[in-house]
Amino acid sequence: MSGSTDNKDKPRLIVILEGATLETVKIGKSKEGRYNLLNCDDHQGILKKNKKEISDYRPDITHQITSLCSHCKNVLIEFDPRVRIPRTYKRFAGLMVQLLHKLVIRSVDGKKLIKVIKNPITDHLPPNCRKITMSDEVDAPVRLSEYLPTLPKDQSVAFFIGAIAHGKDNWVDDIIDEKISVSNYALSASVTCGKLCNGFEDYWGII
């Protein structure tokens, strides 16, 4: 949905997952141990021991969404639009562990598919990009079919979506242009992203 990296001059849809918790933990002794992606299902004991909020560790939310950028714990991760995210969470977790340790995932021909990039996020957005947060705290939700035509057709748009189970959506209040809601009900990040992508498919005439 973002458009190919070969079409950087064309307006693009950019999705940024905010608050995605991707953190590794070593299980087992030093030489025999292995690294896992810390999550609330498999590592409750470790999270409690380190006084961490269990519900914050939901990397499965990130797995459910194919995104361009994921912003987690002040680490910025960029996904190439052509990357194919593993279908199973287990394979996704292994991929993220590899990424967090090596800082880049390459294809068999050497192309960078996923990489850790430098903050701030604004350095990686197109010039004059409109920045919008998807929020369930907005009083009046909008219909995307009515809202999207109000955006300039020659302007790229970046949507910030919370990759968290619950919490405030004030992560990027200092840089966004506006907040919108697309439902009267609280939606998961994956459903929100799906509605957004479907809305742009209709708006841009993509079949």
Automatic annotation (TrEMBL):
CDD domains found in the cross-reference section: Nep1-like
A single Gene Ontology CC annotation of this entry is:
small-subunit processome
- Ranges in a coiled coil: none
Instruction: Provide the alphabetized UniProt keywords.
Output: Methyltransferase, Ribosome biogenesis, RNA-binding, rRNA processing, rRNA-binding, S-adenosyl-L-methionine, Transferase
Which one Pfam family would you cite for this protein? EMG1
SUPFAM superfamilies, alphabetized? alpha/beta knot (SSF75217)
The record ties this protein, via InterPro entries, to: Alpha/beta_knot_MTases (IPR029028), Rbsml_bgen_MeTrfase_EMG1/NEP1 (IPR005304), tRNA_m1G_MTases_N (IPR029026)
GO MF terms listed in the record are: identical protein binding; rRNA (pseudouridine) methyltransferase activity; rRNA binding
- Bilayer-crossing residues are none
Statement: the UniProt record of this protein carries the keyword Cytoplasm = no
Q: Tell me, what is an example of a GO biological process annotation in this record?
A: endonucleolytic cleavage to generate mature 5'-end of SSU-rRNA from (SSU-rRNA, 5.8S rRNA, LSU-rRNA)
Q: Give the source's domain of life in one word.
A: Eukaryota
Give the family per the record.
Belongs to the class IV-like SAM-binding methyltransferase superfamily. RNA methyltransferase NEP1 family.
| Name of the protein in its database record | Nep1-domain-containing protein
